[in-house]
Specification:
single chain; mainly beta; Phage tail protein beta-alpha-beta fold; Maltoporin, Chain A; 2 domains; 7-stranded mixed beta sheet
Length: 848
Amino acid sequence: MFPTTIDHRKGGLGSLAACLLLATACMPPVAAHAAPAAQAASRQSYDIPAGPLAIALNRFSETSNIQLVYDASLTRNLPSPGLRGTMTPVDALSRLLAGSGLSYKFTDGRTVVLARASAAITLGPVRVGGTTRQSPTGPGVGYVAENTMAGTKTDTSIMEIPNSIYVITKQEMIDQQAQNVQEALRYSPGIYAEPNGTYGNNAPSTGNGSTSIEQRGFSSSQFVDGLLTNSGSAGETQFLERVEVVNGPTSVMYGQTTPGGMIAMSLKKPTDTPLHQVSLGFGNWGRYEATFDLSDKITKSGNVRYRIAAIGVTQGTQTHYIDYHRVGVLPSITWDIDRKTSLTVLGEYMYTPGDGANYSGQFPENGSLFPGPQGRIPRSTFYGARNYNETGATDAMFEYLFRHTFNKYIEFNQTFRWEKSDTIGNELSDSSVISSTQRELGEWGPGIDRNKTIALDSRLTGKIDTGPLSHTWVVGSDFREYSYDNIQTIDNTSDIVTDIYNPHTVYTPCLDIYSEKCMNSKSIFISDRFQEGVYFQDQMKWKGLSVLLGGREDWVNYDKSKSHTLSNQNATHTITDKPSTATPQPQHAFTWRAGLVYQFRFGLAPYFSYSTSFIPQSSTNFQGQPFAPLTGQQLEAGLKYKVPNKDILLTAAAFHIDENHYLITDPAHSGYSEDAGRVRSQGFEVAANANVTRDLRLVASYTYTDMRFAKTNKTAQRYDPYAQSYYGNALSQQGMSVPYVPRNMFSFFTNYRLPSQAMKGFEVNFGARYVGFTYSDSVESYKTRPYVLFDAGASYDFGQRFSLLKGLKAQLAMSNLANTYYVTSCSSDFGCYVGQGRRVYGNLTYNW
């Protein structure tokens, strides 16, 4: 059913309109009015478990096909005894409402209005068909979310936004048992979630702002509750309510993002209805996990509510000597100060003494992508030093979200976050392959990364009519102060050579910068950046036409950016001190977007949009020259179709993106980048998110991305991975494919609840993921092989069979079911990333 919201707080014309739409709803109810004879005589089978009354009424509406209209606050914190058996809708509804203090009446054969007994019905947020208007930051319903804040910073239907937005709902994450954001994004159109295989994918977090996730061929950025994050804890799915993919430039509302788009995540916050959940998990590689998620009211009225989620997990990984350990907690409180004002406060602490990342994880092409002299290199192979392999992080965060409604025209929203992330690591890094059976490793000593961010977004929003046009407007400003410190010691005292197939590396570091026995360097890098932006947006509607127009001005300043290096050259034992005082220049840019959507009454909505992007650059080339900012433009056209009266959303989009000053790795100067000129990404996406029936859920997508160097003066030689050398004359990169970007991707995932009485409580799911080839470098030297992976799982709700076990559910999920050995991407300089093998995860969850 289409959800509808009518808010009694607006009074006046709003209440009058509600009475006109639901004429009899404004009349005092009686305990129950008889339904029309045909409806009353219609007997159906009901199977509604005990639990929150709101959920029970939703199940009743789905089964009986009767619309329920009521104030959302009426069912808050009310339980339901559940229902099982064959009966008329009248009998079923009477039993569900028994003892609730609520009355009902039929306004026609398919509509029922609820109210408190002996009280007039005053319409607040209204539920139609048993569901409220979905929260734009909530978990969604099944595999479908209808509203979002991510695209416009206003509560807007996805059908009214003229660009591609896809929501990974909480139910989808649960069914797939995604352990990190990369895994949650596996079935999203336009996203290549795991281009680096298990290099960093063992760890559940992919946070740190700019990640290895590719979006329409460009690196992606992660936002939490609307603010860019640099915390390594951003990817902890235990703390997330939903994940959203916004494809295409989003700089107008969010500032510094690539033209590929952004990943928007919403943290768990206090719920209106009580929530009590604990779980115990287990899996291969010695995984053991415990979580809990609790939410309830603090005050009797429920205007103050709390929620606390926590996780503790330990496990090995598919790679020897790489482990993952984490404990974390996310407490939050919501205070509805009055009917116009609310405040939500969140805190987070995460301790990850082993982050599960394999920083020496690239395999030689011969032995992974191609057969080697001794066959395939096992996925469990570890090239680092087992006695020198410690990486971990500590993350802390404080956040608040404030809202105040001045009147029906103006509302104020503000989000603030302070976050700090410290990462320490002792490990050996990737280096060169020196023969078909040997490789040399880079010697990295202790390293410390410190990230600290203070961010604030403040905005005024409102609605106003100008003649036949209705406007939803936003005016806002945000700022972000980001500090990054890095201290790193590099030990070059002796070469470390290991066997490719049977590495047994033991490393004795030589780190004393003043010792004659050591040859090393110690670098200190400090960078402070301040970004501020002001933005506006107007969403205009006239009948079925929606027009969106927005613009933004960004300023970026660097308070200080400097590096300091101490080097000890063993040959002469001289200590050189090289401070660098070069600070990037201030940068600014104006970005804008415009788009239109037309919604036909039968559910189809074609759209077209143009948008731009901006990212400042703080790095320099090997000569110390700063890079120009990255600027992008996109044209997008598409279709969205919402099947009437069904939770089925179908989308299709075609896009054309240009980005100027695209950066690639400098092949001649290690650790530096170079400006590759302009790149072009064009293609199309089709997707389906559907709750097909009450028992069947489905997501599916296909993505075609053709990304090439459109204009460049760069040249390079081709690389022969068999001979491990470059050959031939240098070729122009213009017209060549950008490396590491798959041209074709296809996926689907479905979950089915078995309807037979004998299998009651069982659900099964299955998914498939196809990823096409990617090129290894900027002159198409060679490419990876396409691969197909299968995922499967099952769950059993014990309460469906045994009343004493009500609330207990078991689940098992397997990814890469066939244990396929596959390579996600290769680099001519370093080798190949190998993907994750079969992962098995199961858990027992109890809700009460």
